[in-house]
Amino acid sequence: MTGRRMILVVDDDIDFSESLRRLLTLENYDVLCADSVTSALKAVEQNDIAVALVDIRLGSGGDGLDVVRELRRIDPDLMCLMITAFVSVDTAIQALQAGAYDYLSKPFHIEEVLSTLDRCFERKQLLTARKLSEERLRQKQHMEVIGQLASGVAHDFNNILAVLLSNLRLLEERIGRAHPEFSELVSEAITATLTGGELTSRLLNLGARPGDRDHPIDLVEMLQGFLVMLRRTLGQGWDARLEVPDRIDPVTVSRGLLETSLLNLALNARDAMESGGTVTITARNHDAGSAPAANGTGDAAGRFVAISVADTGTGMSGDVRARAFEPLFTTKKRGDGNGLGLTMVENFAHTHGGWIGIETAPGQGTTMTLFLPSGVQAGPV
């Protein structure tokens, strides 16, 4: 189970709470204690709590069932366990109806608590995996709709461009030598029209990713084209810069998925620079030798291509960096991010035999590097 295992114990018996906290801490859980409804709600609002153990009878003016309802109202994904010394069928039904996952009967053995907590975290892992799958399916369906819409728009737009280009070519022939002062203007108009056609093609390639297959990709050509699209995507106040050698190894991947992954990284880089800045994309060949790969992907031996996306933004704290690839984790405000972008980029890298690395520090910006197996596995770099 990835991520922090934080637990909240809600009980007005301070001695009991403290004793349980010490025992669970020895089992590598992070444990907070609350002795009232107010302190419990505050703890959930301010911390990433996974499981709450709530006494069904709080002597401080609160009912445990009401506490569970309020806690789950704040965080619907919170797993709640009722603690009760008065076990009955009615009590169990009331606990489940309030939103509790299970209940523990006092007095209990620590083994019983640990077993129940294991089930809670296993269930949370399954729920997270299901949410990730559902979000991926929604994104796939969304991209399919966008692709269909883009195809229709692109067809009409290309017809317009064809008429413009045809007339501009004719105009170029007619005024060429007779009016040389206009030739440059016509030439620029033709170039702009051709660029419009190229941008339409790139948009269609990006939107068609659900059916995209792996092919050898010329990264110099692909990244140059991607840069043009990215500059128009970032918005006013941000720019993009590309640094690649004249020759770099090809990679065999889905072009659409690679562009989507780089776009995710680039938009994260932009969002980290709230006052504007430059997103820098670099690429290089990388000989991994026999060094262990990042993020627990095992041994990475052989030849790779490293594509980096760097910003000069706020950087990440140690805690944020540790959770960067955790599904549904985001530091953005609600509505600005779903916490799945980096998860999908990491999944793309792992699927193709690579990995993604992070270089960051608070106040010093972030560099995300995507390592993909080279299409050339022999010879000097």
Automatic annotation (TrEMBL):
<keyword id="KW-0067">ATP-binding</keyword>
<dbReference type="InterPro" id="IPR036097">
    <property type="entry name" value="HisK_dim/P_sf"/>
</dbReference>
<dbReference type="InterPro" id="IPR003661">
    <property type="entry name" value="HisK_dim/P_dom"/>
</dbReference>
<dbReference type="Pfam" id="PF02518">
    <property type="entry name" value="HATPase_c"/>
</dbReference>
<feature type="modified residue" description="4-aspartylphosphate">
    <location>
        <position position="55"/>
    </location>
</feature>
<feature type="domain" description="Response regulatory">
    <location>
        <begin position="6"/>
        <end position="121"/>
    </location>
</feature>
<dbReference type="InterPro" id="IPR004358">
    <property type="entry name" value="Sig_transdc_His_kin-like_C"/>
</dbReference>
<dbReference type="InterPro" id="IPR005467">
    <property type="entry name" value="His_kinase_dom"/>
</dbReference>
<keyword id="KW-0418">Kinase</keyword>
<protein>
    <recommendedName>
        <fullName>histidine kinase</fullName>
        <ecNumber>2.7.13.3</ecNumber>
    </recommendedName>
</protein>
<dbReference type="GO" id="GO:0000155">
    <property type="term" value="F:phosphorelay sensor kinase activity"/>
</dbReference>
<keyword id="KW-0808">Transferase</keyword>
<dbReference type="Pfam" id="PF00072">
    <property type="entry name" value="Response_reg"/>
</dbReference>
<dbReference type="GO" id="GO:0005524">
    <property type="term" value="F:ATP binding"/>
</dbReference>
<dbReference type="InterPro" id="IPR001789">
    <property type="entry name" value="Sig_transdc_resp-reg_receiver"/>
</dbReference>
<keyword id="KW-0902">Two-component regulatory system</keyword>
<dbReference type="InterPro" id="IPR036890">
    <property type="entry name" value="HATPase_C_sf"/>
</dbReference>
<dbReference type="InterPro" id="IPR011006">
    <property type="entry name" value="CheY-like_superfamily"/>
</dbReference>
<dbReference type="InterPro" id="IPR003594">
    <property type="entry name" value="HATPase_dom"/>
</dbReference>
<keyword id="KW-0597">Phosphoprotein</keyword>
<keyword id="KW-0547">Nucleotide-binding</keyword>
<feature type="domain" description="Histidine kinase">
    <location>
        <begin position="152"/>
        <end position="376"/>
    </location>
</feature>
